[in-house]
Amino acid sequence: MLGKVVLVGGTHGNETSGIQLINHWKQHGVPEHLASLNLGLVIANHSAIKDNVRFVDEDLNRQFTYQALAEQKDTLEAKCAEQFNQEFGPKGSSTTELVVDIHNTTSNMGATLIILETDHFNTQLARYVKHVMPEAIILVEDEKPFEEHGYLCTVGKKGVMIEVGAQPQGVMREDVYKLVEKMAIAILTFCAHYNENESLVETPCEAFRLGETVSFPLDDKGERTAMVHRDLQDNDFAPLLPGDPVFRAFNGETIGWWGNEVTFPHFINEAAYSKLHIAFATADKCEI
Amino acid sequence: MLGKVVLVGGTHGNETSGIQLINHWKQHGVPEHLASLNLGLVIANHSAIKDNVRFVDEDLNRQFTYQALAEQKDTLEAKCAEQFNQEFGPKGSSTTELVVDIHNTTSNMGATLIILETDHFNTQLARYVKHVMPEAIILVEDEKPFEEHGYLCTVGKKGVMIEVGAQPQGVMREDVYKLVEKMAIAILTFCAHYNENESLVETPCEAFRLGETVSFPLDDKGERTAMVHRDLQDNDFAPLLPGDPVFRAFNGETIGWWGNEVTFPHFINEAAYSKLHIAFATADKCEI
To answer: Which of B15, B26, B173, B227 should one mutate to test binding to chain A, selecting the residue with the greatest count of A CBs within 10 A?
Structure first.
């Protein structure tokens, strides 16, 4: 069994599944077979939840680089990050073995487990989750070392994210909630059995490795000239082939995929990335 | 042909379809067969659009009762309402023949035309829209006289709303945008031909008449004890029979429909009504 595990909801205040799951388990307890875990149940950003917004001043889930933590900024989320880091870190020398941070997306990404490295623990975890929950998607974001990410979950020695959609911000869907609950239980069950042989899965599992972000086309004034094409919308993690429709320009024209290779788009039309004009992210298929 | 018609987008700043349609038509002109209309294209709440929020201080689409307009409150939306009323009203003695206000919803309501009275004009309009766009839903909210509503569109002599979903707040979906465009063109085409015999549709059309709002179940502390059941989710305007699942309690139990009659739920799990703990609205089927 692992040491202390922390399960977090409400890192973004309008992503309802994790908030509900944490509050429910706080009130009624976790499933019986997980009762022996050294488990912390944490709501990360109470102010953002109260206002039903992603964040009050800035994105809490980008405040956990060493640099950001050292800056001691005056924003609500910087203070929130400092407090979380004190309680469950400090980052880099944390006594928390694993931080599991729960998110929702407006993209149709189903139940996605995001891992940030492919060491023995993360690989075994991913294989186990995929084994007990075949509908799960494993997304690997290991383009830089674990500690260089600004994500909240990097405060722990290890950290992963649960990312489930499609769900509009501020809405709670039963189908999405049940997927979040199922994935959280799968991860925690793995933790309860870690180091025991029974949890070792030798067979590699299918995963996706993050590529790059793709922006909406903009005109000279920085205004969008196109929207996500209806053939791409909701098709997260489906193969996008060269020439396949990507954008519908407002003049009616279709803009096809300009890449030379197949790619696997995800975070398609995510509301929270709209301000940055990000239309989707690409990924390659891999095995871990 | 009618007198002045005003088409409005951005009454709520995170409902993207109307904003895009208004901006597109302002820049590139309306479809040729509508060019002879006396048409105003208006963005209602620039500040809310800039912040990508429904409203800054309070809901603009509730500021148009006579009482609210007389109060001269200091909120951004009250000032916005006063300005709109001066320019396109004043309510009760407006020279604007028709205000068409475009909205999006996170509920799966498809392309819904909301009319507030069933006089000759509105009935003919609804029948025409349903005739040229059979996928359209007609929703009648005539539980009180037209002028007693607080909606922005009641500033005109006549006023209707276009309400299209499902679309998350702050996201632009092509399928939703195309439905909004199609319904706006249908309404404006009707306006261009109004008073000509060719626009008269004698056959009654199916519609839904608003019933009441249904709240989420709450505990003693005002916390929700249930979410919308997955069998109800996304089934806007489908018949809900006595005993059919309505809510899933967080303890796992199903709460069935307690009404004695069939009803037609809509605005199911709409994000903007979540703060008010409204789960959905009921409706009866009718003919107009």
So the answer is: B227
